[in-house]
Amino acid sequence: MDMFHRRRLSFLIPMMIIAGTQLELAEIIDRIVAVVNHQIITLSDVEQERKFLEIGIAEADDFRDQPEKKKEIRLELTEKLIEQNLILQQMQEFPGLDVSPEEIESQIVSIRRKLGSAEEWEQLLNRLHITLEDVRMRVKWQLQAMKFFDYRFRQFVVVDQKEIEGYYRNEFLTELRRKGITEQPPLPEVEEKIQAILIEEKLNAQIEDWLKSLRDSAAIEIFN
Q: What is the largest CA-CA distance in the chain?
């Protein structure tokens, strides 16, 4: 794994495509699967999330080539939607989260490039019965959520020099040795990247704790 890989929260950033697992559209009868602070999540919402998962703008554990695990997929996607609802409810009380059409289109271009040609992109959208406007709305939400996290948490994250030096000795150099790399760049050359990694780790930890607190205080019902 790239040493400077930035871990992202699973409900935000595209990282995988499920290739072999499909939920049968014909067997889906819309019903309520969860209620979050009086906000309803339906089975069709879960199916829409599964489509975003296949496009690459949502995440779940890797259930590829395991069609027998449809129920686990649905349950996990329901959990992701619960988190999204909790986040959205908090975002509604927070101003200044607008994103420009250019930001949205730039992110969509990045997603499309990972999927292949423009023709393959169109074929995927058609196969999933999902529109480009659906994709735009989802990407818009993701970008707004990232802005919210930046305003709400990132500006308060502090990483000191001692932490950077500790990561360099205990993580960075150890990983180089594990890979058999003998040339070791001095700390000043990688300090900025290490700082970014540590900020991201602290940010994610704060968000996860915050989400847990939201869940603990929320009225959540899940229906099997």
A: 59
